[in-house]
Amino acid sequence: MTEIGIIAVGGYNEMGRNMTAIRVNEDIIIIDMGIRLDRVQIHEDVDIDRMHSLELIQMGAIPDDTIMNEVNGNVRAIVCTHGHLDHIGAISKLAHRYTAPIIATPYTTALIKHQIESERKFGVKNNIVALKAGETLEITKDITLEFINTQHSIIDTVFAAIHTPSGAVVYACDFKLDRTPTVGEAPDFERLKELGREGVIALITESTNAGRNGKTPSELIAHMMLKDVLLGTEEADVGMIVTTFASHIARMNSIVQFAEEMGRIPVLLGRSMERYVGTAYQLGYIDLPESVEIYGSRRDIDNALKKIMEEGKDKYLPVMTGHQGEPGAVLGRIANGETPFKIETGDRVIFSANVIPNPMTQANRYSLETKLKMKGARIYDNVHVSGHAYREDHWELLRMLKPEHVIPAHGTIQMHSEYIQMAEDAGYSLGDTLHLLRNGEELYIEEE
Amino acid sequence: MTEIGIIAVGGYNEMGRNMTAIRVNEDIIIIDMGIRLDRVQIHEDVDIDRMHSLELIQMGAIPDDTIMNEVNGNVRAIVCTHGHLDHIGAISKLAHRYTAPIIATPYTTALIKHQIESERKFGVKNNIVALKAGETLEITKDITLEFINTQHSIIDTVFAAIHTPSGAVVYACDFKLDRTPTVGEAPDFERLKELGREGVIALITESTNAGRNGKTPSELIAHMMLKDVLLGTEEADVGMIVTTFASHIARMNSIVQFAEEMGRIPVLLGRSMERYVGTAYQLGYIDLPESVEIYGSRRDIDNALKKIMEEGKDKYLPVMTGHQGEPGAVLGRIANGETPFKIETGDRVIFSANVIPNPMTQANRYSLETKLKMKGARIYDNVHVSGHAYREDHWELLRMLKPEHVIPAHGTIQMHSEYIQMAEDAGYSLGDTLHLLRNGEELYIEEE
Amino acid sequence: MTEIGIIAVGGYNEMGRNMTAIRVNEDIIIIDMGIRLDRVQIHEDVDIDRMHSLELIQMGAIPDDTIMNEVNGNVRAIVCTHGHLDHIGAISKLAHRYTAPIIATPYTTALIKHQIESERKFGVKNNIVALKAGETLEITKDITLEFINTQHSIIDTVFAAIHTPSGAVVYACDFKLDRTPTVGEAPDFERLKELGREGVIALITESTNAGRNGKTPSELIAHMMLKDVLLGTEEADVGMIVTTFASHIARMNSIVQFAEEMGRIPVLLGRSMERYVGTAYQLGYIDLPESVEIYGSRRDIDNALKKIMEEGKDKYLPVMTGHQGEPGAVLGRIANGETPFKIETGDRVIFSANVIPNPMTQANRYSLETKLKMKGARIYDNVHVSGHAYREDHWELLRMLKPEHVIPAHGTIQMHSEYIQMAEDAGYSLGDTLHLLRNGEELYIEEE
Amino acid sequence: MTEIGIIAVGGYNEMGRNMTAIRVNEDIIIIDMGIRLDRVQIHEDVDIDRMHSLELIQMGAIPDDTIMNEVNGNVRAIVCTHGHLDHIGAISKLAHRYTAPIIATPYTTALIKHQIESERKFGVKNNIVALKAGETLEITKDITLEFINTQHSIIDTVFAAIHTPSGAVVYACDFKLDRTPTVGEAPDFERLKELGREGVIALITESTNAGRNGKTPSELIAHMMLKDVLLGTEEADVGMIVTTFASHIARMNSIVQFAEEMGRIPVLLGRSMERYVGTAYQLGYIDLPESVEIYGSRRDIDNALKKIMEEGKDKYLPVMTGHQGEPGAVLGRIANGETPFKIETGDRVIFSANVIPNPMTQANRYSLETKLKMKGARIYDNVHVSGHAYREDHWELLRMLKPEHVIPAHGTIQMHSEYIQMAEDAGYSLGDTLHLLRNGEELYIEEE
């Protein structure tokens, strides 16, 4: 008999500070250690890199893992299923408390290492182990970890299956069932269906977009919309700026490719461009054309912008950080007139990103767009698709895996409510096979 | 010297009952005669076909063309720029008052003839003349009509240019600048730019989506999203229903093609399917595969649905009317359990349409979806893109045509306000070169 | 030791078809049997009075009390806490299945009797017992029912306390903590606090407005806003129409009083006006001035409207049904021009009601208002306050009663989610002392 | 014959930087010189007091009065109709350019003097003249200024009538038709109707709330809701904080009065409390009880908060600035834990203010409320009524004044659109008697 405990450490009452612990008898696997940046944003003058974890816990910015003291067992591994900050951002603050390796896909491990290096308060010495999608790793005699390929808005995202003597616990947080991705492979549907046949004890899955009907549009849709915005115009000579998530490697790849088709030189500007795109290139996830330029420091960026102004805006496609109106990002500095790049009437600013639905971000975006418009910029907003499964994708995943128990995660209680209604349609019953957990709670499942 | 009058007959205070008269000295060209169906919808038990025009005018359902009595001139032509009801729906009620031919593209003329045939109150005897995109027709010695190819959510849509001795008046209502259409050609950008160089006195253009940022996604995007919904699934054997605008021939064409790829027989159900798709096929706008079946009468439809149930839902792709929850449409009857087709848990209903933003429609859709969900259907909503230009498409059109005067049409004052702000960005000045007209008003322009 | 079961029969997944069963060992008290009218509304041509309960259950219109077969115990009483249809509307369909008296406050019992009389399918022969706020009734040796005065948008609303040997179960569904009501007394705060001290095992409470911040405005606020709309004008001579909930006796009382102050004769029009207001008057809940006129039949109503037109609109204040745009109601018939009453430019229509947030109702209201405006009416909307407790009222009730267990009811899972977050702030813990029930579920509580 | 020019200087394209010039032949009266603070807010590190007017004009923060150079005439007076910053905030930047006195009501003149004193860039030496509501002042032989009493969310607000030989031009911007104000008198309806009889050439009026149906609730409603929040509770001993507009003297008056009824000492905290409330008290607009305390400096405020903590929160009612989440305001500092005042679970924060509908403010409020809630505060939001006329108030004003021409002001084109539709209902015709002006435009009216 196996006793499974699902411990909701963070991300069950909110979006962001994700952390789940899965206990198999007395061995524990932690999955994800994320940060909730909007809880940091509401405070002025915060230097996260120097803050203590307890302070960040109190702010609600990172998971309150002090509850782990009451869980009966030993942590054997810390697993990260992709490299976004809401999954790895608290590693540098919390991982050192556990004597356990950190296991993630290759791209994710590279980002985790960056994360740890920039930390100023704690030293994180845990072993970091790369495991590829499709591979397995024995954690204890009884527990094997398997990574299953999936898609999300960052490359090298996986589902994690924790195999126990009584079946698997599957962690599927932050994914889309994209059958026509532009980088990487479609999710491994065959393996998912096989897992369903083998027997899944529990599925822990994100509820973020469970309230949106239908299925998430493929990244191919964003690719084509963006292509149309960039190439389908009668004003091909105007200044154009693209801004998108630096970590969205597939999108960056498309943009660079379109720049080539436009006969423009792609210039990537921003510190995080260097980190995310550079790393993806070094690890071989994407190809970059010879012409591409990447600049991370403020001085290099301003020099590049100066060159663009001198040689002609129509020769370059600058791609930059700042789509959420982050103060200090390149686009914000351009809007403030703080760089050599001057916006002229008719220049285009293309946001290949949504607006994160948070009042702080909305205000920053409003400021940014107002300033850009006052200078004459034309705005193309939301040339983007979501990286999170919609309701019917969840429906399909649920029916492939056929788990005995389902636990929505990564969201507010309102988001979980949407998931619950879908799962009830699929035959699950709240309080019996379907569970609404709150941060700090442990769900017990006994299996033969 | 030429005196131009732009008479806002209908569609300047609202969406729907579009009618504009363009007076060139004492000759008048009427463009569009549309109906506003939501003004009919708010009344119960209305039989439009038997109603008198004055009654419909009083209801606000059709343009109040009694104001034409005060316009100094003679109507020389009635032009319809595409075949939607908000452009041709009042022809049968109003056209007989004018001794003038009705001029439209071939597909539009076919629809106008249907319209006139179903009329029960008036006899419309006007001559109906087909003019293709790219062609011109001399209306009077001084006035030549030109049709310029464009794209919209119905095939054979055109811009109309009224050439006068002093330059052209361009009517660009209901269009999208789609560079990758799935049926027909992209708008004739070269001709538009040429017109701009020749001199455009006035542009009358729709403001419908002037408030939406960026550009309208191409029909190709809808095509690919729909393909992904239909073909990209691990549950390929469930019942699937598609519902879309019968008049959206490009969309219908995609659906029929996807059915083939799915190995399913496409079955088109609904009276308007027969009319719109049948006509498009007969006129050679689309190809249909041998396998396709189309049924218009209630008995034929129910027989077809019975056959589908007997032979297996997985062998057919029924495509039907009813996406707005219209009472009596095929999908509504299925939701009510009034047909042999039974929805089972997991069957999919795909709305390849938006919800028309009107409380009556929203209520009908809510009823429909509620009933479908209670039967176990999974809903895929809004697998669709708009047929109306967004703000930046308007920006480009304005800069191609460089009209002296701009008049937003086809919308509420709020929609016009959005257009006005964009046009001001482009250098136009309200009350001088940019005009906000209200129904019943005439704008005078004197040209050398 | 007492075993308490809280059985969520209806109204836990939705608004409307409320029914809760409280089991005390093997004795059961049913509280409320309501109907969900919007589930009826989505179907055309439904005659509820002749429908069978199983059909209505299948439509989701009344509670699915077939689950009561699996509850171990005998029903000893059916209690209704006020007279709205979502609390009493299913009595005529379900009560006859139980050999138990129906217990309610005097006004509520009168409405229940009306309800039973209009039923055409079932004969309901249960004994009907009136119990006043502040009174108690022994149900079994171990169970005593107590009614505690509260406020809501209908008079004679109570909280029900089920006293058991181990403490009380309190049912507080549909209430507001109104300290300045215009009819009746403020809630009995002293008794509530006393109950808190005596010990409350469980509180079952509505979550309807738990998501709205602050406290519900008092009925006095509606009273004064309405007074200002009616009396505070420089156009005192125009036609004025008021429409409100016929069952909102306090509001009706204010309106009649304002009519007097305006020097106008109040004329109450509509069948439900007769029922609700007439009953309240007969039972002595309100006084009516001599001048008041009430008409219920279509013929009487039309005659009254004719008289108003003849004698002068400025002499009368017609008060009528139809605020939700119900087809066939008096105001709707006026808007359609089907009565002798003619709306003229500047006449006022005052909606002393909110719009029920349901697409069907919103469409009806839209139709109604559009027609009224086309005739020249000026609309005063939402001269109204809610009858449901807001978040901070719930906070106060929770801290007065200090229940061991809390169960939100009367709402969707989204509404319950709002309540849950508030209750967590107050120290309750989901799954332990705070419970999210779904229709059909029983919660077990064991008490010493 | 008189030629009237209405020059839209600012506030016709936006909310905030209001300025209108009224030319009577060659004499000009300027009305209002306001600032648009949200255009300042989107920039960091802006010190308005030291900025040059041209810079502020370029930011869109103050009216672009450079267009006055092209108006043919001399400015004879600068009139301010109330003391809010969107009416007087640009006085210190622009007034010195005109050799003309500044005329305003007594309270407004006091605020204007404060404004001028805090200016660091320009010296404003214009004569400042106080004129009371009900009084008139001859400006030139042909022009007389009259102030007519009205109500708004600040005391001593007036309508301005500019009497010319051909009739009056009435400026009615920022008002409500409050018949039960809590401080001051109701608007002077008799004089307004008399003006209508005498003949009004043009009405310039705010469109801010023209889109909201019905009438603005009276300040008495806010008074009573606030009273209920403060006094109607079973938790009378908890900490309570009220925050409201310091300039809303009527509201402040109510709060102070309620503090007395609660047996708490009212403590007014914040620099602007000192300015606005202190001035109102000195000028005799309100009475303050002996017990009241007012502190403006940070040190005094913190000392007062310390005393409150020491002596018991239940003995004081602190009333403070910060309702919009302004960084650095008292409430924000409390939320940040920067003052001696500690929020405990159950303490109440009452926002007697709306949230200004601007993303910057919404973000600040979100931050503020999040922090307050994390500390355990219970939030009562929007215990408030608007100070701006709703649609039907505009309807009544229009019918009292019967102006020949109407010009909506103080709003975006969308707000004006709402006004226009109302005015069309009242018989006005756009482009003829109803005018949509844009900043920088002059409307010419010739009168016999």
TrEMBL record, chains A, B, C, D:
It is found in: Cytoplasm. It comes from Methanolobus chelungpuianus. The gene is rnj. Binds 2 Zn(2+) ions per subunit. It is not clear if Zn(2+) or Mg(2+) is physiologically important. One of its GO terms (biological process) is RNA catabolic process. Substrate binds at H384, V385, S386, G387, H388. Residues 16-224 form the Metallo-beta-lactamase domain. Zn(2+) 2 binds at D86, H87, D174, H410. This is Ribonuclease J. Keywords: Cytoplasm, Exonuclease, Hydrolase, Metal-binding, Nuclease, RNA-binding, Zinc. Its EC number is 3.1.-.-. Belongs to the metallo-beta-lactamase superfamily. RNA-metabolizing metallo-beta-lactamase-like family. Archaeal RNase J subfamily. Zn(2+) 1 binds at H82, H84, H152, D174. GO terms for cellular component: cytoplasm. Its main location: cytoplasm. CDD domains: RNaseJ_MBL-fold. An RNase that has 5'-3' exonuclease activity. May be involved in RNA degradation. The lineage of its organism: Archaea, Methanobacteriati, Methanobacteriota, Stenosarchaea group, Methanomicrobia. It comes from the Archaea. Its cofactor is Zn(2+). InterPro entries: Metallo-B-lactamas, RibonucZ/Hydroxyglut_hydro, RMMBL, RNase_J, RNase_J_2, RNase_J_arc, RNase_J_b_CASP. GO terms for molecular function: 5'-3' RNA exonuclease activity; RNA binding; zinc ion binding. Pfam families: Lactamase_B_2 (PF12706), RMMBL (PF07521), RNase_J_b_CASP (PF22505). Homodimer.
